[in-house]
Amino acid sequence: MAETDFLSGGLADPVMAGQSAFRAIMQAMAEPGTVHAVSDCPTPPGGLSRTMAAVATTLCDADTPIWLDPSLAGNSQVVKWLAFHTGAPVTAESGDAMFGFVSDTASMPTLDRFAQGTDAYPDRSTTLVLAVDGFDAGQLLSLAGPGIESTRRFAFAPMPETFIDQWSGNRARFPRGVDLILAGPAAVACLPRSTRITSGED
Amino acid sequence: MTHLDAGREEVIATYNFAYLDEQTKRMIRRAILKGIAVPGYQVPFASREMPMPYGWGTGGVQVTAAIIGPDDRLKVIDQGADDTTNAISIRKFFERTTGVETTTVTAQASIIQTRHRIPETPLAPGQVLVFQVPIPEPLRFLEPRETETRTMHALEEYGVMHVKLYEDIARHGHIATTYAYPVKVEGRYVTDPSPTPKFDNPKMHRNPALQLFGAGREMRIYAIPPWTEVVSLDFEDHPFEVQAFERPCALCGAADVFLDEVITDDRGGRMFVCSDTDHCNTRQDQGHVGEQQG
Question: What are the domain boundaries of chain A?
């Protein structure tokens, strides 16, 4: 791979692509468990999914410290690409990050390792961006809470270990807690901290 | 109303799409996502100077500018009306800086920016209602210090708000608050619905549309996601109730809507008409007739 490859792969029209990607993320956050297409994605180096790259270029900049999981942090092309295309500083402390990018979702750190915000400022928490293979396989979850008319069935894979237990802890900390953006192939779904999750197969 | 499509040809090429720079939009977008994740919590944001004075809806304009795209169709209302100064100014602002289509028809709009009304036509899933908010803190007139109100929200210490409503009852015999009537969102945050008449509070409850609130001068953004529980504060023996009107709209005869009083002469003549002009015009087009036109 050439030394300057990280300079390429940006968006041809960052203003419009950022707007449409944000609307997808916003609708996904407003209606947890619904899947929204993100069509215009950047082309990052291998290791970082195109949808994760779209979330990064849409939401991250010099004001947002980001945390990268070991497989991303160890990929120098990905680190350089994110630095050049977003300007976001990388932090090694997961608790200091405004955004956390996780490509190895199955073995990610537990949710309580990230910034939870405070009771006075619950917004000072990490938003986690998780790479997922899709939304039509994996354990069936039942979602309830704001943005959901009654309950909504949802699945994503791979799922972090002990996810349902971790999430009930995250929900118990409300209004503190982390929010998840699940980046699938050219689509996103979200799980904000307000969502209650139970196993859908009970 | 004449359609302002002509404005699209004069989109100002020297401004970024929707006026704001991209870093500002990202900052506002991050605040919106936090607001959606914590319904009713006021997220601080770095409000920008806008080319209009504070009090003219700079918070709502910044929220709209951060979310609007070329596929959107925008409606702007001021006290329910599409044809008043504030609504026309903001609609023209977005026509010139984005070139998006605008409409006055509630059902055709994907984004509705509003000053102090929720349209009478029920909103649909996927629509976004953007409120312009002057004072986002419902506790502000009871406790002026931001450090204290922030702690009160953190501790869920809302007794003072019930005391205020109780004092209304002690003084007037009923809860006299008629606008900016406090609500509790999803059982957690006491939230200011912006100075909408309390008539509109029930529409916020489990509304299928996303409701976003922007306060420019006070630098706060908050949100109520679709289907969220929104309960107006009250007492068991003094339950929340909305305004009732003695007569229907004088122009379209609608009886279940919020009415504005219009003075018609200098001898005490007056009439009551729909505050929502689109709703009123639509009903008149459908053949509904009020007493003024009977």
Answer: 13-108+129-199
Which candidate, B244, B151, B149, places its Cα nearest to that of B192?
B149
Assign domain A13-108+129-199 to a CATH class: alpha beta
d(CA B5, CA B2): 9
pTM tops 0.90: yes
CB contact under 8 A, B225 and A30: yes
Cβ pair B30:A59 closer than 8 A:
yes
What is the residue-level pLDDT of chain B in tens, covering all 294 positions? 334 444 445 555 568 999 999 999 999 999 999 999 999 999 999 999 999 998 899 999 999 999 999 999 999 999 999 999 999 999 999 999 999 999 999 999 999 999 999 999 999 999 999 999 999 999 999 999 999 999 999 999 999 999 999 999 999 999 999 999 999 999 999 999 999 999 999 999 999 999 999 999 999 999 999 999 999 999 999 999 998 999 999 999 999 999 999 999 999 999 999 999 999 999 999 999 998 875
Q: With 0-12 CB in 10 A as exposed, 13-18 as middle and 19+ as buried, what is B288?
A: middle
The shortest C-alpha distance from A65 to chain B (Å) reads 13
Tell me: ipTM over 0.90: yes
Dump the DSSP string for B211-279: EEEEETTTTEEEEE-TT--EEE---SSS-------SS--TTT--SSS-EEEEE-SSSS-EEEEES-HHH
A59 interaction partners in chain B (CB closer than 8 Å) = 26, 29-30, 33
